[in-house]
Amino acid sequence: MNCWLLLPFMLGIPLLWPCIIAAENSKTEEVRHPAGSRLRIRRGWMWNQFFVPEEMNKTRHHIGQLRSDLDNGNNSFQYKLLGVGAESLFVIDERTGDIYAVQKLDREERSLYTLRAQVIDTTTGRAVEPESEFVIRVSDINDNEPKFLDEPYEAIVPEMSPEGTLVIQVTASDADDPSSGNNARLVYSLLQGQPYFSIEPTTGKIRISSKMDRELQDEYWVIIQAKDMIGLPGALSGTTSVLIKLSDVNDNKPIFKDSLYRLTVSESAPVGTSIGKIMAYDRDIGENAEMDYSIEDNSRTFDVITNNETQEGIIILKKKVNFEDQNHYRIKAKVKNPQVDAHLREYHTEASTTVIKIQVEDVDEPPVFLLPYYIFEIFEECPHGSSVGTVSATDPDQRKSPIGYSITRSEVFSVDDNGTIFTTNPLDRETSAWYNLSVTATEKYNIAQISSVPVYVQVLNINDHAPEFSEYYETYVCENAVSGQVIQTISAVDRDESIEHHHFYFNLSMEENNSNFAIIDNQDNTAVILTNRTGFSLQEEPVFYIAILIADNGIPSLTSTNTLTVHVCDCGDADSTQTCSHKDFMLSMGFKAEVITAILICIMIIFGFIFLNLGLKQRRKQTLFPEKSEEFRENIFRYDDEGGGEADTEAFDIAQLRGSAVMRGRKPRRPARAEMRSLYRQSLQVGPDSAVFRKFILEKLEEADTDPCAPPFDSLQTYAFEGTGSSAGSLSSLDSAVSDHDENYDYLNELGPRFKRLAYMFGSAMQSKN
C-alpha cells in the first residue's frame, strides 16, 4: 500500500516529500531529520522515487500519491505534474494527487523518468509550496530473449585436429537489466553437433571433441542455444547456427587407378615422342593433391614427366627403339606427393606403383649403312673402271629386301649393285684432290625406302707434272756487260704434291751450244744466269734464247726445258738494265693511253650520231597540217598589260568564253586585208622612223610567211597605247561573240601560209553552220 507523507516546515518552508508504505513483511526504518521532522525510507532506496514494473497491461496503473501536509481535505488544493512524460505517460489526479501510468513502459527504451510536482491553491491561484522533484524508475522484468549479434557464424579448422582444439567463440546479448536478478545471465548449450564438437556454457567457446576426416565429411552445421536466468525455469532462449568447414591436410597418398597399363610405340618414333599417359588419384585437394611420377630402376629407354595442370604422368621416349632388337618392354612407375609435412609422413610410408607394358610396332625402315661415312683413296691417272671402294647397306627389317645403289650428280664415279664404286673418267689430283660423293641405297621391294651416306674420295698424287718457271722473266743484258755478270735469278714450281719438300735442279740444255751465258744452281730451288763473255751488240744480235733444264726430286724424276729470253739493251752511261725495263714500261703505257683515247673518241662519235638521229626523227614527227579528226582547242593567252581604267567599257566577261566561235555576232568592220595593212602602218609609225628598222621588220615578216615548218603560233604584235584610246583598237575577241555570226573568213586565205590553218578552221565552221 502506497502513501505520501506531508513533512512539517523545515527552515520556515513547508515540504512535500513522497514516501512508500511497504507491504507486509517488508523492512522499514525511521530516520530523524536534522530539523526534527521524520522521514521514512526503505533500506537501500531513497523514498523520493516511485517504482513501476515495465510492460504492465493495465490501461491505467496506479503508481503512488502526492499529498501536501497543508492539505486539510477541503479540496482547495490542485496537484500538477511537470516534466518529460507528464500528461503523455503519466497523469495525476488534481484533487487527490494520485499518479497513474497510462501507457506501457519499456525499460530497455527508458528506465528513468524525472518529474516535478506542484501544489496550487485554487482560491488564490498561487503555489502553496515550491516545486518538488521526484523520480519514477521502471523496474525490469525478463521480457527479452538472448540474441546473437554476429551472425552468421562460419569457421574453418584443419581436418584431423586433436580434441580440445578451439574452433570459434560465439557471443549472445540480452537487453534485460544485468543488475536485476538473473534476467541477463546467459548460459550456452549445444543443440546439434555432437559428438564432434562441444561448447563451454559460460564463454560460448566451441571446441573439437573428436577427430574428423575431411574426405568423409568436409563441413558441419552446429546449432548453439543461449538461455538467460542461467537456464532456470521460465528463462528465455535464442539460437544460432555455426558452419564449420574442414580444411584439407595431406593425410592421403596418391594411388594409381590401374595396376597395369599397356602402351605401344612405333620403332620410327623420334626421341621425345609421347607414348601414353598414366593417372593416379589423390583424395586430398589443392597443393596436397600435387603428384610426382618417376620410373623405377632408371630406365634408359623411357621416362615420365608430370603434367602440373592435369596431374597426369606422360610416358616419353628417351631413346629410339628397334623392333628387330627388342619388340617389347616392361617398366614400373611410382607416384608420390612432392611436399609432405613431417607430422603427416606416417600416411606416406610407401609409394603407389604400377606396371607399364610397352609393345614396339614394326615399320618398314630404310636401309642402314654399316658406317656413318666412307673414306677411300685412289691414285690419279688410274685407268677407266678402276675400283675405288665398296659401301654396304642392309635392310633392318625382317624380310631383308635386296639393296640397290646409286651416286647422285657425279660424272667421275659410278657404283654397281654390290656397292662397289668405280671411276668413269681419269683423275687429276692437281685439278681436284678430293671428291665428296653421296651414295644412295634403295630397297628393291619398296623403292620409297632410301637412305644416303657421304663418301669422301682422296686422289693420291703421282709425279706427272714437270717443274717450270715460277713466273715470266723479262731479262736484259747491257751491251757493255762484262763476263760473269749476274743478269737474272730464276726459280721453279711444281704442281705435284711431294711427300718431302720440293727440290729442283737447274742446268743448261745439252742441246744448247751457247757459250754466251752460264747457269749456277744455288741448291735452294733458285739459280742465277751469268754472262760468259764481255760485250754484246744490239744491232748484230738483239735477242738471245737460253734453254734451261729443270728437274724435280719426284719418283720417277721429271725434267722440263724452259726458255729464257734475254734482250740486249743500250744501257748508256748508267750501265744498268733498269733503264731498259723503264723504257719498255713507258712504251707500253704510251701505247695503252693511245688505245684508251681512241676508244673514248669512238664512243663520243657513236653517242653524237645517236642523238642526231633522235633529233631528226622528232622533227619529222611534227606535221604542218593535222588530220581532220584532230581535236582543236582554243588557247587563252594572258597579257599583263594595264587596261584603260574605268573608261574601258569593253571589259573581260567570262560569259563570252562559253560562246562557240560560230556564234559570234557581226560587227561592221573594214575588210580584213585593209585593216591588217592599216595596223601594220600604225605599228611602223609607233617606233622610230628609220629605214633600218622598217627593213628588218619586213625581212622577218617575209621569213615567217615563207617558212612552212615554223609553228603557227608565233606572231609579231605591237602595243603602242593603253586602253581604249589606242589607235590600234582592241585585240580581244571576247566581245565579238555577238557580231561574227555572218563573218566571211575567206580573206584569211590571202594572208599567206601562216593563216591557212585559221582559214581552214573558220571556213569549215561556217560551212557547217550554213
Automatic annotation (TrEMBL):
It holds the Pfam family CADH_Y-type_LIR. Residues 1-22 form the signal peptide. One of its GO terms (molecular function) is beta-catenin binding. InterPro entries: Cadherin, Cadherin-like_dom, Cadherin-like_sf, Cadherin_CS, Cadherin_Y-type_LIR, Catenin-bd_sf. GO terms for cellular component: adherens junction; catenin complex. It is a single-pass type I membrane protein. Keywords: Calcium, Cell adhesion, Cell membrane, Glycoprotein, Membrane, Metal-binding, Repeat, Signal, Transmembrane, Transmembrane helix. The keyword Metal-binding applies. It is found in: Cell membrane. GO terms for biological process: adherens junction organization; calcium-dependent cell-cell adhesion via plasma membrane cell adhesion molecules; cell migration; cell morphogenesis; cell-cell adhesion mediated by cadherin; cell-cell junction assembly; homophilic cell adhesion via plasma membrane adhesion molecules. Residues 68-148, 149-256, 257-369, 370-469, 469-585 form the Cadherin domain. SUPFAM superfamilies: Cadherin-like. SMART domains: CA. The chain crosses the membrane at residues 595-616. Cadherins are calcium-dependent cell adhesion proteins. This is Cadherin 19. It comes from Bos indicus x Bos taurus (Hybrid cattle).
